[in-house]
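Case study.
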Amino acid sequence: MNQDRKRIIKRILCLYLPLALFLLFALFPFYWMLISSFKSNPELYNLRINRLWIYSPTLGQFQELFKKTAILHWLWNSFFVSFLTSLISMTLGIMAGYSLARLKFPGAEAFGLATFITYLVPTTLIFIPLASVVQSLGLTNTIWALVATYPTFLIPFCTWMLIAYFKSIPKDMEECAMIDGCSRVGAMVRIVIPMAIPGIVFSFMFSFTLSWNEFVYALTFISDTTHKTMSVAVPTELIRGDAYFWGELMAASLLGSVPIAILYSFFMDYFVSGLTAGALKG
Amino acid sequence: MLIRDPRVTASIARTAQLVAKRGGVRFIKPDVFTGYALISPAVFLMLVLLAYPFVLAVYISLSDRLLGEPGKFIWFGNFIKLLQDTYFRQTVWNSFVYTVTTVTLKLLLGLALALLLNQEFPCRNWVRGALLLPWIVPTSLSVLTWLWMFDSLFSVINYILLGLGLISKKIPWLGDTFWAMVSVIIVNTWRGLPFFAISFLAGLMAIPRELYEAAEVDGARTFRKFWHVTLPLLQPVIAVVVLFSTIWTFADFQIVYILTHGGPLNATQIFATMAYDVALVAGRIGEGAAVSLFLFPALLIVIILILRYLRQE
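After joint prediction, the assembly is written out as follows.
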């Protein structure tokens, strides 16, 4: 009996309590974002009541947001840019990844290495000259600046992810297909891609998340309100001088976070297995 | 229609290999052309929008270019000026403090969290998913929430700490040089911890159970098992994750830009935020490009170390 009790106490102290603290640290900001966005201003700034609870939930902050700002534009821009760049990067990543995983040609190893190195290059290293490249392409202040530049950090990621994935697929099947008269590209499209769907879905979703979250390029290349994406528009357009409208800011942050959280909750298994696979191979 | 039965296809493949080995027929055409054709779009894009800007960065950093003015070539003028500048020296120091502290915190907490998550408990998948959220949600938006939580008047963290009696007066989170650095470190750790934890968890799950059983037979207790079995086997994953995070943290931008904008009194200014301020706010493009090129040596060291590690594997 005593032994049992000791075990339970040990389990609480060594597992549940630390885990609860980690969960609190990870999730409290989201809780605060959530309740702040459903409070009215008088309640939000009232220091006399229990601030961790919400007494009269209201959609007022969201109504203000839709009335006063271009938030629908920002959401659409984020979605459009993320979808298009992920699609481009995934396609080019499949082509390059397959080529580097399967085909033997001079320089293949060097390209594989270059992929890995470019994957590590931080965007903040080159955003200043890239701004002048974007300008000379005539793309400044349009979302096409982002469509053009985001693949530079997405393609290395997709390629690197997919090389590992393609290598884990046995070669026999595509060799058979080629013996049956299929071309190399035909074998890739009909045999290898269908088998690599989990890896491809993961690289698409993760690219989507990375684009949706990107900040430095979007901040540098775009200054027109209606062309901004969520991640930049919310912190730059909703903060005017020293005036912080926290209710609206939190409501907008919630709207910008929810699509990614939904995407993630649907595909959590892909995410976790993809991440862990990447971590093991990376 | 292609043959789908794996047994049939496998036997055909074996026959084909045998035939090929005897040097009779060559089934597979040289891959050289296809190989180049498949990578060329990606390579082209990377050359134009990554390699060329990098070369351009070096070129711009050697000039005194201003916003809207081409400027002239001044060799290493910007670099010399920066190295003598106390403002820049503080940025270098801040960047090191920021990187070393957050990576250490993320490593220790990430290891602890991974060990917790590797145990059996109810709703394990749900908990794992929830803990990943800070890393998935757009950083600029979650950092805005932190900005609100650190607010000088309405800080909910102070509200809770005061309520619990843990502090006796409000902490000036973003208003004080020391606490501002603490704040950006907390937020960076919050954001990066899930990546560490989940990578380490993957490493832990790959360690065969038999090794622990063998250690138990030899009489090893929990700590010794961790020290002699877990840690050595986890070392490659730890090394790669730490190196990745080091370069990302060193080149970080959003957290500092949104929380403190480098302030107060330059106390949290790091390379990327200073480069942005100098080049795009003050308009001294050449000098700003030079500031961000200081990230390059760090990148180079990380690349060399990772490659060396991967070679060893």
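Observations recorded in class. Chain B touches chain A through 106 residues (CB under 8 Å). The mean pLDDT of chain B is 88. We will return to this complex in the next lecture.
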